[in-house]
Amino acid sequence: xxxxxxxxxxxxxxGKLAMEFPSCFPEDGAEVHIFTGPNGCGKSTLLYALxxxxxxxxxxxxxxxxxxxxxxxxxxxxxxxAPLLPNEPNPPQQGYxxxxxxxxxxxxxxxxxxxxxxxxxxxxxxxxxxxxRPPLEGSLxxxxxxxxxxxxxWIANQRTKEALLRINHKNEMADRHARxxxxxxxxxxxxxxxxxxxxxxxxxxxxxVEVDGRKLGIxxxxxxxxxxxxxxxxxxxxxxxxxxxxxDDLFQRRIILFLDEIDIHLHPKWQQKILPAVRRLFPNAQIxxxxxxxxxxxxxxxxxxxxxxxxxxVSVLTSKNLTKTSSSLDLVLASVFEVEETFGMETEKALDGxxxxxxxxxxxxxxxxxxxxLARNLAGESLEIKDIVGRELLQLSRxxxxxxxxx
Length: 407
Hints:
alpha/beta; seven-stranded mixed beta sheet; 11 helices; 13 strands; globular
């Protein structure tokens, strides 16, 4: 089951919007849809509207203009509603693809939402105890502060159960618990390109991390790494605890993943790695991403990228294209983000003056001396600028038959 269409009227910055999410067939993993555009164009609103259909309508209610506002999400095949849990007045939190009875719900698909604003903090572990919070509670909350204690408790539980099972020679069951943490470590390592692993210490009881061989506490980690750990660990914890209809591998589950500006706090090198890593880790997922980063857009091929713009304060869809990793960052900046400038503002201003004077000197040779002074001063800014100016002077010499050079 996949999301394939959304219609919005009078919601957030949208007056009226209807857009489809066609399938794409990447060779290296999940289907990806990327929302781009300036601040205030509704990227997060779209994600919240999509997630609201699967969970709490309050996600989008505050963004509605008035009683005439509406949003409609279409699934293929249509979305079945989940039965009520025993003694609960509302449907079970998030997910909504179920098999079984209210007494024995089994999930075939589920949805999860995260924001790059999330952070972890250290949390002590006082004892080994089972988690009592439902695995899908709050799974579409986006910006909710993660419950660090739940994540660290789950990691400690996995390691403790593994050790106890090995003592009792139940190695197959022990391997299952070990595999969950091993894969979590591997997932984070792939995204941030460091050797990463969680370590459970006995005295004092707690969870720390090891990064490239250095043992560190959670609170001293950089914000970018804490953000990645926050949502990846939370997702793996939930996937491992959900009562699924079968015993398929966790990473092969069919999920919908909403990621709101997960590039926040990340170095450009990590921005280039995060989406390809997530796409490979969850090949059967449908992933919706909002971003301001050209590095994220340029990091995957065969993903749909939707560009939004503002016209008289109202957001409109301005472009829709499949990504190519063969496109340069300059092309992505110009075609997707509408940023033509590639240098700093002062240098761009100086280049504009150079190009304008170049046009004038073609018609008026008396400006040659002043133009060459300008060209030589500009060329002294950097080797890259010198190369650009040199090419322009060579072209000018060929066009006019007059000599223009930096020497």
